[in-house]
Write a structure and sequence with these properties.
258 residues, alpha+beta, Aminopeptidase, twelve-stranded mixed β-sheet, two-stranded antiparallel sheet, 14 strands
Length: 258
């Protein structure tokens, strides 16, 4: 078992990971050196398994032949960086070998399909009230981002954020009301998320910002995906309003740093 840098990741290591597993595009962002993270492998030359930790949020992603003997060592290694999260399908063998008694154990919905037939994005974002402006995110607006610190830490620089992601800012004058933004694209797919200032929620503004952002993503040829906790009813409702469908439920567990 050895820890390697992102620059040492080989195609053989990348091939161990299944893009169809929950939120796996984030793991590929780490493997491709786009966002910060850590990588652990059994053998650099002929790897049978590898584990990726998303640097900022702490989720682990498993690739290859993961056995019960791998898990304790991997958790011990990655705890040095902070807490650990794991997402896996409800019928995944991982469920039987993960550590017992996580600090959080819940369910999440993963939307990877969006119907462009049933949902007209133009109709959604055309509902913008006259006292707001919806504009593409630039460096100055990014500095006002609700997720500025974590996004900057993940991508390493403002320049990388601007080059790798898309964002739509809904403003009222100089005040940032709502921001819809993506992660980094990989394998033709890109994640969409949104944050609205607490004083402006339940006004339909997130729908407007997301609809415009999704249009921009699809214009560039990307398929978008959405991920949210099952109990986050507003986010689930928004996803479906934006045309996301055929959600897949998975388990997400979290262990605080020991």
């Amino acid at each position: 078992m050895q820890s390697i840098t992102q620059q040492e990741v080989t195609q053989e290591i990348v091939n161990l990971f299944d893009l169809n597993n929950p939120t796996m595009p984030r793991a590929f962002n780490v493997l491709e050196g786009v966002i910060t993270g850590q990588v652990l492998v059994d053998n650099l030359i002929q790897p049978d398994w590898a584990v990726v930790r998303e640097g900022i949020y702490g989720t682990l992603y498993f690739g290859g032949q993961i056995t019960s003997s791998v898990i304790p060592s991997a958790f011990e290694h990655f705890f040095q960086f902070g807490g650990i999260g794991v997402g896996c399908w409800l019928d995944s063998p991982l469920n039987k070998i993960l550590p017992a008694n996580p600090d959080y154990d819940g369910f999440t919905l993963y939307f990877t399909e969006r119907s462009s037939v049933e949902t007209n994005l133009v109709t959604l974002y055309s509902q913008l009230p006259s006292d707001y402006d919806l504009v593409s995110r630039d460096e100055q607006l990014f500095k006002k981002s609700f997720d500025y610190d974590s996004t900057l830490a993940s991508f390493g620089s403002t320049e990388n954020v601007m080059q790798r992601t898309l964002g739509m800012s809904l403003v009222q004058g100089d005040f940032l009301v709502c921001e819809a933004a993506t992660g980094a694209p990989t394998h033709g797919v890109i994640e969409v998320g949104v944050t609205t200032h607490e004083n402006f929620r339940q006004k339909g503004l997130a729908t407007i910002a997301c609809a415009k952002l999704i249009e921009a993503c699809e214009t560039q040829g990307y398929s978008t995906w959405w991920d949210c906790a099952k109990q986050n009813t507003p986010s689930v409702r928004l996803a479906k309003k934006l045309g996301y469908q055929n959600e897949k439920e998975y388990r997400y567990a979290w262990w605080e740093k020991r």
